[in-house]
Amino acid sequence: MKEPARPLTVGEWCAEYERIIRALPLKQITINNRINYIRHIRLSLSNKRLTDVEPLDLILILRGLENAGKPYMRRRVRIEAIQLFNEGIIARKTNFNPAAAISFWKTRPARSRLTPEHWQAIHAWARNTNMAWFALALELALVSSQRRADLVRLGYSDVVGHHLRVCQQKTGRRIALPLDLYLEKANLQLGSVLERLAKCGAPGITLLRRKDGKGYCPGHLSNTFKEGLRACFPGKDWGEKRKPPSFHEIRSLSERLYRQQGVDTMTLLGHSRQSMTDEYNDDRGLEEWKVLKI
């Protein structure tokens, strides 16, 4: 008589699920991220039977991430958990998806938005501390609306005709930005910023270059931004228990300023849905009170 199969544990199924993910036609960074989401489930429930997992088990994991100040990670782990248990049902390893029973709940954004005044102060700080490269990095980020990972990869070979071609690392979207692109509120033109970048640093293949001509890493942009923020706004209370803005918030500021000009910011940012762009347009309480006229 054939012995019944030993019940599969969550840890064992996570290992199988990881192999499924690695076999998918995904970018390596996406695979790495998804495996990282699975790690939170594996660490908490590794020895529990897959068929014994209840919604509360997963809710406790999600609440832990929420309380640790990781709302984005909490959202992604919930989505990954739903897919993990769906695959388990398809493979006949379980008959129930406990993650599907968990309702999505919104989290108030933890990071404060950047204002034009914040940007101007950090830009002046960079110039006054002989960091011309970072002042130009701030200008390139604001005038182009692109992510830091794309900013550090851009080179002069990406200037084709009268456009700067950006192949976004995160999404694979390809955007051609006219060199005449002009941000009125900051008095910045893309072509002019590129010309100034050409004169900054040793010769190299990237727009943003160190003194030895090599490129910068995204983390260096973020760390220098934090340094400037602390120098310009020491001890500042960002209000409503929010964290200080990061370098990435320049992207939101750029979107808000360009939208005021009437620019197609969904194309500019490389989004596939207007709702994604609208999230960047939310100023998270920065807007002044609107007075009702009677």
Question: What does this entry show, briefly?
Answer:
With 294 residues, this protein is mainly alpha-helical. It has 12 helices and 5 strands.
Distance between the termini: 86 Å
Number of helices: 12
Mean pLDDT: 90
Q: State which percent range the strand residues make up.
A: 5-15%
Please provide the count of β strands: 5
What this model shows, in words?
It is a single chain. By secondary structure, the protein is mainly α. The chain folds into two domains: 10-101, DNA polymerase, domain 1; 116-281, Intergrase catalytic core (hpI Integrase, Chain A, Orthogonal Bundle), CATH 1.10.443. The protein has twelve helices and five strands. The chain has helices spanning 10-22, 28-45, 55-67, 71-90, 116-128, 132-144, 148-151, 190-198, 218-232, 249-261, 265-269, 274-281, and strands at 159-160, 163-167, 174-178, 182-183, 188-189. The strands form two sheets. A three-stranded antiparallel β-sheet has the order 1-2-3, with no helix packed on it. Strands 4-5 form a two-stranded antiparallel ribbon. Helix 3 (55-67) packs antiparallel against helix 4, helix 5 packs across helix 9 (218-232) and helix 6 (132-144) packs across helix 10 (249-261). The chain is elongated. It starts with 9 loop residues before the first helix and ends in a 13-residue tail after the last helix. 29% of the residues are buried. The mean pLDDT is 90.
